[in-house]
Design a protein that fits this description.
heterodimer, A: alpha/beta, eleven-stranded mixed sheet, 15 helices, globular, B: mainly alpha, Histone, subunit A, two-stranded antiparallel ribbon, 3 helices, 33% helix
Chain lengths: 474, 100
């Protein structure tokens, strides 16, 4: 399987073509999608037209871009004009957005070919894709296990060789957790680095779009393409995309890295062992690894599961059967909205809307939502204090390797606990990535997490690259 | 059962959120939301006096652009995706009724 970097080089040089690369991708999808349920929609026709355009531009001698002819899968909460976008929800079934997300426009401008929309937990709420209205995605490494979530389809697309790279979104770990469970690199960028325009909102102050890839360099390449200021997102950082690919081999010599006790405690033995082995590998490459404790991180799960649902309850109020998506008819407008939402949303989405509505309601606002916002301040301060002492932090991405279907579906709290190591970063707005390192139970992959202060992506990629090499993956 | 939220409160919240819950859902949600809210009480162990609330990581301020006319989405394309349209407008069932 070629990397995105290799595909783009081959297409630009004429050694391959965008059409040939797309057909290879479509043929793997045709072989494996039925069993794995990775794509909710494969846009063969649109992708073939796009690939033909790329090849025509190459033939004319034009510079097609950094992702020339690279097939890319995108999570089905990203809008692509005219292509069905469901967020894995019945309430948006049949909806075709009248515009494209900025990240999709940037992919196309860089010569990439969008092959289709991948499965997710409904509205990105979940950690296993079991909450999709269109059935779960299976982990390509072991189909009896979940691929993680919510971006499980985008992770499975890369893990099954359907595409070399894909896009997901990360609100509390929805890129890093599936990356860990599928043996991939997954990145949650600094809040505001990547435009959210055209990403269907779950929790606006936490959501970020980011890459999945098999290699650190491909992840850096994809992030470079989608990052940078966008006037259509008022929370977008007013600065150009950072240079990332050129710096992946910077190494970690002289870097001070904190091994965070709270991001390892509670993890399975095999996961904890992988994190400690990663610390040794970073030391061997010249980093200084020191033990760090950030007790505040223990409280972030509670804060997150009030803040994210509160924002979701507000964001999802727009799904009322008036302007888009499904409508269940009724005699008056209120009954129509209630019938539409009751039929359109699944159980987890309803649970979070309820939780958020409650946390924001009169009489409880201060006790729950207000308290959670203060814990968020403590989290930000605690990270800032840590980054005064070290350049980056190291921990586990998830407490365990990929779990089996149905293991946590009846117990929301058990499912939420799966996000305990990834949530803190989202509250702080900082970047973090997951990189595969060693293996855990049953030979399944383990993800090691690297965290840094805002705008430290280049540093995190350099450290991840050291781990990738030490693990014999490159 | 934790008792962090009562069945009546769950029913009230469902009405606010425009959701109809069955008897079974009402029961399950009361228990599950209770457990989640019970877990959230660990925040009460903290002394948060004097701590400011953060609603957004970077304390953003409003962004405004120059007041110039630019193209927006095409009306008919947008309306084509709506469940019901009359006279180039979104159509909804009756809003005002007889007083109860």
């Amino acid at each position: 399987m070629k990397s995105a970097l290799e595909i783009a080089a081959d297409v630009r040089s004429g050694a391959s073509s965008a059409v040939a690369e797309l057909e290879r991708s479509l043929s793997v999808i045709a072989q494996r999608n039925e069993a794995l349920n990775v794509f909710l929609h494969v846009d063969s026709e649109g992708a073939r037209a796009a690939a033909t355009r790329v090849d025509a531009r190459v033939a004319r001698g034009e510079d097609v871009g950094a992702l020339a002819g690279v097939p890319v899968a995108i999570k089905d909460n990203l809008c692509q004009v005219g292509v069905p976008t469901t967020c894995s929800s019945r309430i948006l079934e049949g909806w075709r957005p009248p515009y494209s997300a900025t990240v999709v426009e940037r992919l196309v401008a860089a010569g990439a070919v969008v092959v289709g929309k991948t499965n997710l937990d409904e509205f990105a709420m979940g950690s296993s894709t079991e909450n999709s209205a269109f059935g779960p995605t299976r982990n390509p490494l072991d189909p009896s296990r979940v691929p993680g979530g919510s971006s499980g389809g985008s992770a499975a697309a890369v893990a099954s060789d359907m595409t070399s790279i894909s896009l997901g979104s990360d609100t509390g770990g929805s890129i890093r957790q599936p990356a860990a469970l599928c043996g991939l690199v997954g990145v949650k960028p600094t809040y505001g680095l990547v435009s959210r325009y055209g990403l269907v909102a779950f929790a606006s102050s936490l959501d970020q779009v980011g890459p999945f890839a098999r290699s650190v360099t491909d992840a850096a390449l994809l992030l470079e393409v989608i990052a940078g200021h966008d006037v259509r997102d008022s929370t977008s950082l007013p600065e150009p995309a950072p240079s990332l690919v050129a710096r992946v081999n910077d190494g970690v010599a002289g870097m001070r890295i904190g091994l965070v006790r709270e991001l390892v405690d509670g993890a399975d033995d095999s996961v904890a062992a992988a994190v400690h082995a990663a610390a040794d590998a970073l030391r061997a490459a010249g980093a200084e690894v020191v033990d760090v404790s950030i007790p505040e991180l223990g409280l972030t799960l509670s804060a997150y599961y009030l803040i994210a649902p509160a924002e979701a309850s507000s964001n999802l109020a727009r799904f009322d059967g008036v302007r888009y998506g499904r409508r269940v008819d009724a005699d008056d407008v209120t009954s129509m909205m209630e019938a539409t939402r009751t039929a359109g949303f699944g159980a987890e989405v309803k649970r979070r809307i309820m939780l958020g509505t409650y946390a924001l309601s009169a009489g409880y606002y201060d006790a729950y939502y207000g308290q959670a916002l203060k814990v968020r301040t403590l989290t930000i301060n605690a990270f800032a204090r840590a980054y005064g002492e070290v350049d980056a932090l190291l921990g586990a991405t998830t407490p365990s390797v990929a779990f089996k279907f149905g293991e946590k579906t009846d117990d929301p709290m058990a499912m939420y606990l799966n996000d305990v190591f990834t949530i803190p970063t989202n509250l702080a707005g900082d970047p973090a990535l997951s990189v595969p390192f060693a293996t855990g139970e049953e030979g399944l992959p383990v993800g090691v997490q690297l965290l840094g202060p805002g705008r430290s992506e280049a540093r995190l990629f350099a450290a991840a690259r050291v781990l990738e090499i030490a693990d014999g993956r490159a | 059962m934790s008792g962090a939220i009562s069945r009546d409160e769950v029913a009230k919240v469902a009405r606010l959120a425009r959701l109809t819950l069955s008897e079974t859902e009402l029961e399950t949600f009361t228990e599950q939301l209770g457990q989640i809210l019970e877990h959230a009480r660990d925040m009460n162990s903290l002394d948060l006096t004097g701590v400011a609330a953060t609603a957004h990581p970077f304390g953003i301020t409003n962004v405004v652009r120059d007041d110039v006319v630019t193209a927006s989405l095409d009306r008919d394309t947008v309306l084509a995706m709506a469940p019901d349209v009359r006279d180039h407008r979104f159509a909804v069932p009756r809003i005002l009724g007889e007083a109860p």
